[in-house]
Amino acid sequence: MTNLYQQLYATHQQLQQSKPLILNLTNYVTQDFMANVLLALGCAPIMSESSDELAELTTLAHSLNLNIGTLNAEFAQRAVDAGKLMQQQNKCVVLDPVGAGATKSRTKLAQELVPLANIVRGNASEIMALNSSSFSSYGVESSVESLSAMLSAQNIVKQTQKTIVVSGKIDLIYAPHANYQNKFGIELMTKVTGMGCCLSAVIAGFAAVCKDYALASYLAVVYYTLCAEQAALDTSAPASFKVKFIDCIYQPDWAWFETRIKQSFAKEI
To answer: Could you tell me if residue 235 is left (phi over 0), alpha (psi between -120 and 50 degrees) or otherwise beta?
Structure first.
């Protein structure tokens, strides 16, 4: 318990001091929210829609966040090219397979991008779709609980040696060398568009300074969900929660975090 708090604080401090550049190839819907969350976290976000600058940007970037939310042929090729460039430089790629399972094109692209990624974060439906082309979902919202994707996530890890993050009421992190669960978080997070997208970006931020990608993912998820819980102490409505959440990402209450972590672990003993 104490170790979790100490690791979380130390990694966050390292991130704040290094201010990593996070390259985002992402959807149009949540770019502003994502950029503001990354800035509040202490990262330097950059968004790109040009293939011409990929070689330069991947050289500068510390990690890449790939989000296939708004899909077209040009984006698909740009995502593949960026993933390959980052892989050649041994830099972290986080894949957010938005809507995998909803359409054949989304599922196909997501499955093609998995080998280029180091970390894959999605909801249960998306992760299950990556493991089986016959699985269908209802779009970007998960049609099943995260625990239902446990076997799919474990199977992907065995096949690819990647770190898989399944978001839900209970967040699951699987990797070849470690497994984690996170039970922090609140229902209000599901009422704001882009919370999942921003989580993938935050994972990319933590992974820029922590090369143990399973641990980086776990710490990012814990930090993110604790910030959400802290924000909800002052509001119960989606719009005000979104603003307060960014404030908490920027200025977390570390004393409250420590108390909350202690409370959580005390319940499990």
So the answer is: beta
Nearest partner of 185 among 150, 222, 219, judged by Cα = 222
Domain range holding 254? 2-268
Token pair of 235 as six digits: 């509001």
Task: Give this prediction's pTM.
Answer: 0.94
Mean pLDDT of 55-69: 98
Domain count of the fold of the chain: 1
CATH number at residue 118: 3.40.1190.20
207-259 tens-digit pLDDT: 999 999 999 999 999 999 999 999 999 999 999 999 999 999 999 999 999 99
Is the per-residue pLDDT at 98 higher than 50?
yes
Q: Report the C-alpha gap between 241 and 104 in whole angstroms.
A: 35
Asked if residue 63 lies in contact with residue 23, where contact means CB atoms within 8 angstroms, the answer is yes
Tell me if 252 sits within 8 A of 244, measured CB to CB. no
pLDDT digits (tens, 9 = 90+) for 6-59: 999 999 999 999 999 999 999 999 999 999 999 999 999 999 999 999 999 999
